Amino acid sequence: MPSRLTRAPPTSAPTGTKGHNLAVSDVDSLTAVIAGHYRTGSTTGLDEYSVACPRRVWRVQQFSWWMPSMMHRFGGPDASFDRHPATLPVRLSPHLHRGNHHLRRELRRLPAALNRPVENLFRGGGAGGIIGAMEFRNFDARGYRTVDVRTGYGEWVANYEQTVEDVMDLALLDRLQEPSWAAVTRAADLGCGTGRTGQWLRGKGVPAIDGVDLTPEMLAVAQRRGAHDRLVEADVAATGLADSAYDLVISSLIDEHLDDLNRLYREAWRLAAPKAAFVLVTFHPHFIMTSGMPTHYTNSAGESVAITTNVHLVSDHVAAALAAGWRLAELHEGVIGDAWVAVKPKWERFRNHPISAAYVWRKDG
Ligand SMILES: C[S@@+](CC[C@H](N)C(=O)[O-])C[C@H]1O[C@@H](n2cnc3c(N)ncnc32)[C@H](O)[C@@H]1O
């Protein structure tokens, strides 16, 4: 005889259910870890949780993104029908009720000391202190003191141009098949820094470029360089630039400083005109994880200082871009080879490792 569960009508999309199971299993593991901490005083479980949990979460997230992308179309005239399964009402499954019961039972066992905010139980802060995010501190091989973006680039500006290598970003831009640079009429350069990207675009014939950056000292250098028509001091997630005004949006070497990629991809979408391209050049997550190196500079006292660095997997980019509406048109990866070793001989040990990537996203319609 079929069980009650198998006879029940489907009440949520399979990926939705997977998400519920993930949430419950996470609460379950975290509860056990917190309970263990208060029972034994050991922080080992807490430390291990912060490493193991993100790995599991990202695996499930990637699967949940991949599965519907195989089965549904998310654009065109059928879009509202295609999305329908995701809007079905959700009812908790018996497994979820069991999970909640287990959680309540475990929480009742915890001592009153648990009334402290849970985030205080975790050391450091990594990627903005987000529990469950891919935190750079899990890979950090340098242990440099870390400062925020404005402080860091405000100091690095003194020798930024001498330390950033063209092979990281400009060489990748040179490899792109599209967009057709000469056909671009107006570009928004998000995280324009000292204007390197803007100058490269001018060289390709882009006639008008607006730049946005958070760091006034970087903007001052860009101003002197003169590659941009307009420079705005703002966050790339809220630029204040006009809607649909750009047929190219570009952002080079900044996303590792953002804790939420969704906001960048959504803002780029808002600025983009129909059929516009969004070109994003990024530090490769593999390199950040393998080298254990944050984005860093040497200050005037000779100290190596890190600037807040986050690890965004390729799947993070794909998920954030697709959610904003973008279609992937092109993707290149920059691998360390002779050109890199010529400018950084010490990086022979990283030969054949990918270090950067360039995505070209397209706004259809
Ligand atoms: C490595 S530099 C890249 C600059 C330039 N795109 C280039 O390729 O040389 C990173 C720049 O991003 C800026 N930045 C980082 N986070 C930002 C944010 N949330 N909003 C605006 N600018 C940001 C920094 O101020 C810095 O100028």
Automatic annotation (TrEMBL):
Residues 13-64 form the FAD-binding domain. Pfam families: FAD_binding_3, Methyltransf_11. Coiled coil: none annotated. CDD domains: AdoMet_MTases. Residues 1-20 are annotated as: Disordered. One of its GO terms (biological process) is methylation. Residues 189-279 form the Methyltransferase type domain. InterPro entries: FAD-bd, FAD/NAD-bd_sf, Methyltransf_11, SAM-dependent_MTases_sf. One of its GO terms (molecular function) is FAD binding. Keywords: Methyltransferase, S-adenosyl-L-methionine, Transferase. It comes from the Bacteria. This is Methyltransferase family protein. It comes from Saccharopolyspora spinosa.
